[in-house]
Specification:
The chain is about 80% helix and about 0% strand. By secondary structure, it is mainly alpha-helical. Helix 2 (about 15-35) packs across helix 4 and helix 3 (about 45-65) packs antiparallel against helix 4. The longest helix is centred in the last third of the chain and has 23 residues, at about 70-90. It is elongated, with a radius of gyration of 14 Å.
């Protein structure tokens, strides 16, 4: 079931698997910030995104039998854009 949901989600997003993870990380970050009613520079928002990314990679390792070494690039793809937006907001380069 997890595999089916994951594949359907990745097929709905444009690009390959890596691009889908980048889009998914950005979507999750924006949804978390909207739910918290906070800005891009709020620490709770990025913390929750990192925890969700870790949970997804643990699920990949457990349910899909992916290697833990293969999960690290996936976690990087998931968190890279949210971390960049968080850093830009913290450095006062981004005001939203």
């Amino acid at each position: 079931m997890y595999r089916d949901v994951r594949m359907a989600l990745f097929e709905a997003l444009p690009g390959g698997s890596e691009a889908s993870q980048i889009y998914l990380g950005l979507i999750v970050y924006i949804l978390v910030l909207a739910a918290l009613r906070r800005g891009f520079g709020h620490l709770a928002g990025i913390g929750i995104v990192i925890l969700i990314g870790l949970a997804l990679e643990v699920a990949d390792v457990v349910f899909l039998r992916q290697s833990a070494r293969g999960a690290l690039p996936d976690l990087l793809h998931f968190t890279l854009t949210p971390l960049a937006l968080f850093a830009a907001a913290r450095a006062r380069l981004l005001r939203l």
